[in-house]
Design goal:
Structural class of chain B: alpha/beta
Shape of chain B: globular
Order of helices and strands of chain B: HEHEHHHEHEHHHHHEHEHHEHHEH
Largest sheet of chain A: 4 strands, parallel
Radius of gyration of chain B: 21 Å
Number of helices of chain B: 17
Shape of chain A: globular
Helix content of chain B: 40-55%
Distance between the termini of chain A: 46 Å
Strand order of the largest sheet of chain B: 2-1-3-4
Radius of gyration of chain A: 20 Å
Largest sheet of chain B: 4 strands, parallel
Largest interface: A-B, 52 and 48 residues
Number of strands of chain A: 8
Order of helices and strands of chain A: HHEHEHEHEHHHHEHEHHEHEH
Number of strands of chain B: 8
Strand order of the largest sheet of chain A: 2-1-3-4
Oligomer: heterodimer
Number of helices of chain A: 14
Strand content of chain A: 5-15%
Strand content of chain B: 5-15%
């Protein structure tokens, strides 16, 4: 098989999975694993997987909101609105259950409403501590992980230590391969443009994980060496900050403007690379421990400086010339941090652009103009 | 057609004069702590204040300050100060008011009292974590964070243990800040006063189960300040004894807060501070009285231990109204509706408080199903009047009261 044929085959499989609606994607799921929904990377996918289920991440769907407003106030983000909309429309009925983790007030409220509707037979709230810099939080979270394990064992399947170790290894390998791909991508944009990369990541949250790892490995094997990639004007390096992207086209907009995302802190992106789990210790302990290793999410407290220091360091390491903040409207945790993040970055000579998105399907042209102007401005600096 | 307003005079509470003196004295002390040899800590409204008083530290409540700015209608300009520095208008207006005030050095208190340290407890919302991080950076002071995991359904032993252990950490933090050992004896005394004030506050609120109600929710919104800020002091106990006595006298004489009380209502959420007076007038003109609410009753903890202890306070901080799930909130609303013999309820969908407002639409349906009484959701913001359409709300309330009358419930 030629390289191009192999790449095309991989792309077709990825596209086939991510282009489907929730309901349609259920047709492609492995029959031997019950799908369990989750929203946030704080939920240990490894445990769900080790119990014999398929962790299925809900990342917000392109949805016209017609049902959710009877339950939610207008001042909540698209992820919350569109997820409840999908539930109420019956698009998530293929899920056997859902796992919430404690993050922001909106997700907390969504969990309550979700439970109240009782449309899925299983629901679990994993109460991740908000304090990441406290010795007292560790035993608490360990007990929460035990409670989650008990819930899975009662409702899904027994979790043997060996199965859990295997799942930890599988998810670690996936993160490693994604990390390699992430690093390579900068020089191979023609092969893996940003919107395709976003779809690769998205596929990894909904498909059979063993097959996903195979796909990533096939993809890495099929890519040309960096030197083989076409020569051209080097695109402007950009760092993308925010929580998650529900539209793959954000990356296209950035690349069409002559820039490339060289780093990000999206919880659907590079932030998850910080979730590696130690393989040489008790897996439940290791799963607990990883949440305390670094600043992961602005809903959590590590120190007043943690978000600033982490972002400044990552931007510097990435070599980005500018930072684009892509934030959901009504995302309080990120918007509270934004002015100080902007200020500290700009004091270090890094320009920033804020893109506030509510319904991602309404503002493409406006976003395009603003991104183009920002990238042009960076070129003049 | 406009309804003809029939005069319905309000009976002033005489103890209000003592309230004003008390709060003036409190703010004077907080503004000039060094004169009294005190340190100042900024603390969230659900935070454990008793250990602060036990250590001789004066608490300052940015949320109370936000309410003060809202009621004084100066919040918008302070929010705008924060917005000019890049803060989104969609953020909590209490936080924006405090941040704007701190950045500009303006507001009803002038320059805010500089804290020696901050104490943040997330038992009311996650917003306070971000808010206090910002202020810790701006003011360059230490921050103690008490993490109280949300209780969706039941309290687990490990959750309770986590909060109890953090209370011990809190004491160690205070000892380090104040450079003095924690006195169990002193804490016991402060804790006993706190429990007595809570008990008095609960009894005061429950007096409005009488018909007519001697004390409305609008009164409670004002008179709640000492139970928040001075809980644990003898001043709060003395004040609430005095207030209770006056209200008991009203009950004995069969006098209500208003001369006419035809419709009894329950309020849900933080008040619309800048419109309290007008809303009260508008409701009372139609013989409607807010007899109870979920907000001020959050400081009337039920099921507290009789003896003060760190463990008991840990539990009470974990189980505040806003740290409990929808089913708990539903039970609370039903209890209030039935206990106060209410004809209906008004829910303030508060743009600034997701923690309070998410789930209200489902709550409204469920409370009506359980009690047979109607509810109304109005949209506003607790301090930012830019998000409030008063005429529209007044019209909604008019229709709602007509509906209650039409159903023959009042």
């Amino acid at each position: 098989m030629t390289r191009q044929t192999a790449l095309n085959k991989i792309k077709k499989e990825i596209e086939d999975i991510v282009s489907r609606s929730y309901g349609d994607s259920a047709l492609l799921l492995p029959k031997d694993r019950m799908p369990i929904g989750f929203f946030c990377p704080f939920v240990p996918e490894e445990l769900i997987h080790a119990a014999g289920a398929l962790p299925f991440r809900l990342m917000g769907a392109p949805a016209q909101i017609t049902h959710a407003q009877a339950h939610l106030p207008p001042y909540c983000c698209h992820l919350v609105k569109s997820s409840l909309e999908s539930l109420l429309k019956g698009e998530l009925h293929f899920l056997k259950g859902v796992v919430f983790s404690h993050t922001c007030d909106s997700m907390k409220g969504l969990s309550d409403i979700w439970a109240h509707k009782g449309l899925l037979s299983l629901q679990f709230d994993l109460m991740t501590p908000a304090h990441l810099n406290s010795g007292r939080a560790r035993p608490y979270f360990r007990a929460e992980m035990e409670r989650f394990k008990d819930f899975l064992e009662s409702n899904v399947g027994k979790i043997s230590p060996d199965d859990l170790k295997d799942s930890v290894r599988l998810f670690n390998r996936i993160r490693e391969r994604l990390g390699e791909l992430y690093a390579l991508r900068r020089g191979l944009i023609d092969y893996i443009p940003g919107d395709y990369f976003a779809r690769i990541i998205r596929a990894g949250y909904v498909m059979d994980r063993d097959r996903y790892l195979e796909l990533l490995e096939e993809l890495l094997d099929s890519l040309p060496e960096q030197g083989e990639a076409g020569e051209g004007d080097a695109p402007t390096p950009i760092y993308l900050a925010g929580n998650m992207t529900h539209m793959d086209t954000y990356f296209s907009l950035i690349e069409d403007a002559g820039a490339v995302v060289v780093g990000d802190d999206l919880c659907s992106g590079a932030r998850t690379f910080r979730l590696m789990v130690a393989e040489d210790q008790d897996p439940l302990e290791a799963l607990t421990e990883r949440y305390f290793r670094s600043f992961f999410c602005p809903t959590k407290y590590l120190s007043p400086q943690a978000h600033l220091d982490t972002l400044v360091q990552e931007v510097a390491d990435s070599g980005a010339q500018g930072v684009i903040f892509l934030l959901y409207k009504y995302c309080e945790p990120y918007f509270f941090d934004y002015p100080d993040l902007k200020s500290v970055l700009e004091s270090k000579g890094v320009s920033t652009l804020l893109l506030e998105v509510e319904d991602p399907f309404q503002s493409q042209e406006q976003l395009k103009v603003r991104i183009q102007a920002f990238v042009e401005m960076l070129g003049l600096v | 057609m406009e309804r003809q307003a029939i005069p319905n005079p309000y009976r002033k509470i005489q103890t209000t004069a003592a309230y004003r003196r008390l709060m003036m004295a409190y703010y004077f002390m907080v503004k000039h702590p060094r004169w009294f040899g005190k340190k100042v800590a900024w603390i969230t409204s659900g935070g454990p204040v008793e250990p602060l008083y036990a250590m001789g530290v004066l608490p300052f409540y940015p949320e109370n300050y936000g309410a003060m700015c809202g009621a004084g209608r100066v919040s918008v300009s302070l929010c705008e100060e924060a917005e000019q520095r890049g803060y989104s208008r969609d953020l909590c207006s209490y936080a924006l008011t405090d941040i704007g005030s701190n950045l500009s050095g303006t507001g009803p208190l002038g320059v805010l009292p500089k804290p020696d340290f901050l104490v943040c407890c997330n038992n009311i919302c996650g917003t306070v974590i971000k808010w206090y991080e910002i202020q810790a950076r701006a003011l360059q002071v230490p921050l103690f964070f008490l993490d109280t995991p949300f209780i969706h359904d039941e309290i687990h032993d490990h959750t309770l243990r986590y909060v109890e252990e953090q209370m011990e950490g809190y004491i160690a933090f205070l000892e380090e800040q104040v450079k003095r050992p924690f006195s169990e004896k002193r804490f016991y005394k402060v804790g006993a006063r706190s429990l007595e004030a809570i008990q008095l506050w609960r009894e005061i609120l429950e007096l409005s189960k009488n018909r007519p109600a001697p004390f409305t929710a609008f009164d409670a919104f004002i008179h709640m300040a000492p139970i928040v800020t001075l809980r644990g002091t003898r001043w709060a106990v003395r004040y609430y004894r005095k207030l209770k006595k006056e209200l008991e006298q009203r009950v004995a004489e069969g006098k209500g807060a208003f001369a006419r009380e035809e419709i009894r209502l329950i309020w849900d959420n933080i008040p619309i501070w800048y419109d309290i007076r007008k809303l009260s007038k508008m409701l009372s003109a139609q013989g409607a009285v807010l007899v109870g609410d979920t907000y001020t009753s959050a400081w009337a903890h039920e099921g507290l231990d009789v003896e003060p202890s760190l463990a008991g306070f840990a539990r009470s901080h974990l189980t505040t109204y806003l740290n409990l799930g929808l089913e708990h909130k539903l039970q609370k609303m039903i209890t209030l509706m039935e206990g106060y013999g209410a004809h209906g309820f008004i829910m303030h969908s508060n743009r600034s408080c997701k923690s309070y407002s998410f789930g209200q639409y489902d709550l409204k349906r469920e409370v009506t199903t359980a009690t047979g009484k109607p509810g109304l959701v109005i949209e506003a913001d607790h301090t930012d009047s830019r998000s409030y359409a008063p005429k529209q709300v007044e019209r909604q309330i008019d229709i709602f009261l007509d509906m209650i009358r039409g159903q023959g419930q009042a």
